[in-house]
């Protein structure tokens, strides 16, 4: 046995040295699956004398392919370069360039990226006189992509269309495919689909590849879709040496057409398959591992396996219950600062994970308040998200009709047929005439002769402007009688913004609408804290938060904010999972889908994936009440928390979890203690103290109170009047009386 095998445990060695035929390696998180795949390839080459060029290894991402190649190079040296290794898409691209001529592809075919696809669909919609507002190109492209992943061509899609929308998509799909073929081009989905077309239509080509590759290895098999599964079967069809590596417990991408049945039914599809379980975990502590197993053990239909570790027991999993999401964010920020200051972890070793992007807002604001540097992986800061900026622009223009930037942003959002040139002409004319953009737009819409600074607009443009102005005039009149949150509701209703998101960005409409609701919650919450809240004050407050420099932009040593889906495959010494509540995790869609448990089972797997990202410390946090969908809602604790045994969990400070998981007394006491601790850690201001604010200048403290785990300091500023400020956000500094 080679010395390198000494680095493997017994199960890993069985997987590496398994005989030929179908092999399924069920590899739990942190069980060393990449090492096993690399060693199996080396075993095949060095000990089974399989030529490297007769081995194909397929991964799901370019990053995984690079890591795999590096591991194999360490074991095989230069021979690793002869392997057929890469993603499904890259391997299929090579096959099509070499053998795509029978299906009409030249060796130099173009691969259209998303921009190319969008341009093509826009042209087709124009040619067919299809309204892009009703059928946004991005949504149409998404529908076509889904159809291709389901192996439904244009003809089948047209036959199965059961709505007017799908009938229109079918027309575009037909033209789109014809245009691709005329151009001798393929899109990303075609790389897989057309390879399958080649193999199905020309069996001799498929047989040649199946004969060439003695061994085919597929990583992350639980994430394969129907097309990828069929490709793997064909490529391994002659020699039947198909090795698949994966974990059904980590199947969380059904929305990307991943089919968990591919791995669950592997032993049915290949009755002579050998199955090896990798159950020793090298990543997490004992407490974390047992807590995670308690959650996933209740999943339905999973192959039985139980992870174990020789790692230390470590700290218990910490559960924390806050009153509101803002307190949850402040707790996370405070705990991170403690861990970093004590030298237990560096900021880059901490990740905060959440189910929905909208949850990041309260966490971001808490991090800004507590000085925690952060970066958002695969996302955008809350106040930089397009839908948030759109709605803030509406509020800004209602407040100040001279706000040119806001005018230009939303004059054609949603699409009203007001082009950039028209908007530019109005703004330029306003500047020359000394008018607000709104006033100039009124003149342009009327076609006033005296508005010579504004070029004469076509009737259609004037009518579109008039519609926009009617809207703005109406909501501006109403502002005096409405709270900020109600004003935002009025804007949303008048512009049909939810419908706009669903048509304009079908794939992300739900996530973006959640961000809209989070902004609405910010407005409602602001009014609770500020008795005399005004639109002007709210916009100022938001501007002060959103205008702070990106705290992680130039800070590689920053805390990571990331969704649970994006976190798969990663690991961190310290993990916070925020929003462990019914409606967030599990998501409300899964709850509404009951008694069909398909979505709920995937939510359970999402929770498990998040928990198993943690190496040393795991915090599970939640809020009893949260602003959602326009109101304060009570949120019971996630059902997944009830699955975790008490002996694996404690409250902050080490106190044991007591009583019912849905209302633990220990957590409530800890939350109260945390609020007191936060209060005491802030500078001790008293009435009469002079303080400095970065925007309002120097003022005098007239009152101090505890507000939601923070200090509310009432300050009289000579030029700004009396302001009620939360110290964690205001960052007031004491000023001497000298």
Descriptive keywords:
alpha/beta, Rossmann fold, about 750 residues, single chain, 7-stranded parallel beta sheet, 29 helices, Arc Repressor Mutant, subunit A, 6-stranded parallel beta sheet
Query: What is the assigned CATH homologous superfamily of the largest domain?
Result: P-loop containing nucleotide triphosphate hydrolases
| CATH architecture term of the largest domain | 3-Layer(aba) Sandwich
Q: Report the portion of residues in β strands.
A: 15-25%
Share of helix, binned: 40-55%
Poorly predicted runs are: 658-682
Task: Write a short abstract of this structure.
By secondary structure, this protein is an alpha/beta fold.
Could you explain the architecture of this structure?
44% of the residues are buried. Helices cover 46% and strands 15% of the residues. It is globular, with a radius of gyration of 30 Å. The strands form 5 sheets. The protein has a 7-stranded parallel sheet. It has a 6-stranded parallel sheet with strand order 3-2-6-7-1-8, with helices on both faces. Strands 21-20-19-18-22 form a 5-stranded antiparallel sheet. The protein has 29 helices and 22 strands. The N and C termini lie far apart (80 Å). β20 and β21 form a beta hairpin. The longest helix is centred in the last third of the chain and has 21 residues, at 509-529. It folds into 5 domains: 3-99 and 193-278, P-loop containing nucleotide triphosphate hydrolases (Rossmann fold, 3-Layer(aba) Sandwich), CATH 3.40.50; 110-183, Arc Repressor Mutant, subunit A, CATH 1.10.10.160; 317-381 and 552-672, P-loop containing nucleotide triphosphate hydrolases (Rossmann fold, 3-Layer(aba) Sandwich); 384-543, Orthogonal Bundle (PCRA, domain 4), CATH 1.10.486; 690-735. The chain is α/β, with parallel strands linked by helices and 738 residues long. α20 packs across α21. The model is unreliable at 658-682 (pLDDT under 50).
